[in-house]
Amino acid sequence: MKSYYCWKCEREMPFLDEQEWQQIEPLLPLAKQELIDYRIAHNCDLTTAKRNCYSQATQIFELMTGLPGFHFDVIYHHRLCDWGEECPSCGHLLRTPKASFCANCGWRPESKP
Ligand SMILES: [Zn+2]
Ligand SMILES: [Zn+2]
After folding, report:
1. pTM to 2 decimal places
2. Which residues constitute the domain of residue 69?
3. Which of 31, 74, 90, 97 is 20 to 30 A off residue 2, Cα-Cα?
4. pLDDT tens digits for 59-91?
5. Which ligand is nearest to the CA of 102?
6. How far is the CA of 11 from the centre of ligand 1 (A)?
7. Residues with CB under 5 A from ligand 2 (ion)
8. Which ligand is nearest to the CA of 8?
9. Residue 95: inside a domain
10. Which of 8, 42, 3, 38 is nearest to 20 (CA)?
11. Measured torsion, CA atoms of residues 49, 67, 83, 11, in degrees rounded to the nearest 10
């Protein structure tokens, strides 16, 4: 696992490689269901449910990264291969695998015009 600036979280976050992703991916749909079940069982709003419902995916993510309390909807976008390469200039991830420039520093690969 490596940490990069996350464009969506607007902070430095851990990104999961494929091996790590495979451990957590099957838990993400379950986490969604756990949250729905929690809301029904406790008759509470989504914010309260998110705060109190500690799904398996959240627990595994915490074990892997040391960061507690992240929900499946946040974990979903921390799969490393969904992002571009590491910018050789500033070290941020390019925002997509097909990005033609770095949104942080403006770096462009030589090969892509
Ligand atoms: Zn993020
Ligand atoms: Zn850059």
Report:
1. 0.86
2. 2-82
3. 31
4. 999 999 999 999 999 999 999 999 999 999 999
5. 2
6. 8
7. 87, 89-90, 102, 104-105, 107
8. 1
9. no
10. 3
11. 90
Q: How far is the CA of 70 from the centre of ligand 1 (A)?
A: 10
Instruction: Considering every ligand atom shown, identify the ligand nearest to the alpha carbon of residue 105 and give its number.
Output: 2
Banded pLDDT at 113 (limits 50, 70, 90): low
Which pLDDT belongs to residue 110?
A: 76
Share of the chain above pLDDT 90, in %: 93
54 falls within a domain: yes
* Residue 99 covered by a domain: no
Phi/psi for 110 (5° steps) reads -60, -40
Q: In sequence order, which residues have a C-beta less than 8 Å from that of residue 24 and are 6 or more positions away?
A: 16, 57, 60, 61, 64, 75
